[in-house]
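Mods, move this if it's the wrong board.
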Amino acid sequence: TGLILSPHYGASKLRWYLDQVDEVRRDRDGGYLAFGPLSSFILFHLLQGQPLVVDHVNASRTQLMNIAALDWDEWLLDLFGIERESLPRCRPICQEYGFLGAGKIPVTAVNGDQNAAIFSLGRPGRNEAMVNIGSGAFILAPTSTKMMRHPALLTSLANSSEDRSDYIIEGTVNGAGAAIAWASNQWNLPDMDKHLSNWLDRESDPPLFINTVGGLGSPWWQAGQVPTLLGHGEPWQRGVAVAESIVFMLQANLEALLETGVVVKRLQISGGLARFDGMCQRLADLASRPVYRPAETEATARGIAWLAAGCPSHWPKPGRGRVFRPQGNQRLLERYRKFRQVLG
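Not the wrong board. Structure tokens:
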């Protein structure tokens, strides 16, 4: 599947519904039940003819799809006790899905959020990894048609068509924007995201924040730990600690990603939190690689537009971006070492 075994994904949730909810079992037995990822629900309700279909990326996130065969896996369906007839048909990311019911507008590409964001500037550059920071944060390295694996990371698809599949290897941070929202509420720091830019620019030695908001994603994959602040500081320093924890976890995932032999010479960053210069610079300092931030950091819409347009060779940039180059920051490196010692 490219995933670790986890109740976070859809398979065990579907099994729970079948075990616990009488109406779901009754509809299955009567042949009326259809279920799948959100994209299949949206396509069913938006497209003419209401087809029951799903793209490869969202299908893969159910933990029921074989990522090599690009179809539901019979062994997994049997393991979870889920009938193929209840699931949507798996389709390539780039395909003629049909027309919107509201007009003759074709739908020609369907993808996941961060997977689409890879293509915001068109085809990714060679030896470039993408960082997308929203509610969660992700680092994704395209590996072309080669499927690469790491025991602590995820393998997913960037793009697929009838005759080609392009893969990525992915690190996942659960608590990014969600961690900032958590800290703002928990520590009574109203409008924290508005002040964070200035806080990150101030010289300080903030405490460490063990960011388990939403559970620890890769490369630890642990749940249940309470978010913890190690040390003391002013309220604004706590905010910096949360922001640094996101960067620290991205760096830990980058290090795991490099263990696969993938070459990364530059990072491209996007997403809502990419607007903070202090986070981009810290990421460059830890990664020892330049970080490029495009002029438009909301990357998902541009990426899916490129896919829907047929992956053209020319895709205009939204303007002049900014490059953050690595600088010596020994105090940041020391905080990162302590962070890794705590989490292992």
